[in-house]
Amino acid sequence: MTCREFMDTLYEALGTCEISLADRMRLEAHRLFCPRCAAEERKLKAAWKLLEVEGSEFFPEPPAFADRVMERVYAEEADERDAPGLADEGLDPCTGVSFRGWVVTGFIVLISLGTSFFGVEFSKVAASQGSSFLLPVGLTIGCVLTGYGAIFIGSHLKEFSQRFLK
Hints:
This protein is mainly alpha-helical. The protein has helices at residues 3-16, 21-33, 35-51, 65-82, 99-114, 120-129, 134-155, 157-164.
């Protein structure tokens, strides 16, 4: 057991007061052979006893702390509900891109991938490599279009469900 493991196990033992027999034996064995950890344990136990004064709390909870925190949480939620959001302006709340922007970008991606076969360099590479070159190109185009479609549908799932599940 290392000194770090000893201290971690010791913190767990003081916090929960329940450790296994094997861990207790490992603590005892380490304590016997490491005087530095034994001294640290004595200091830690002394500090723990100071904090556990019977009948009083050493660190009392601030008055109405939880109430103040919850008031702020509720106020922020109310502000978010009342403020006009991106959805009111026709924008996607996650990305800030409009539905029309997604469709236009999709058509640009589709056209650019489809016209890649007409490039001069592509025809030279395809002629030298043969038809086996078309398989990775087709897979790449399919993966790009599938990925774009999945992101588009995933980011507009609420709109699609409202439109098609009426």
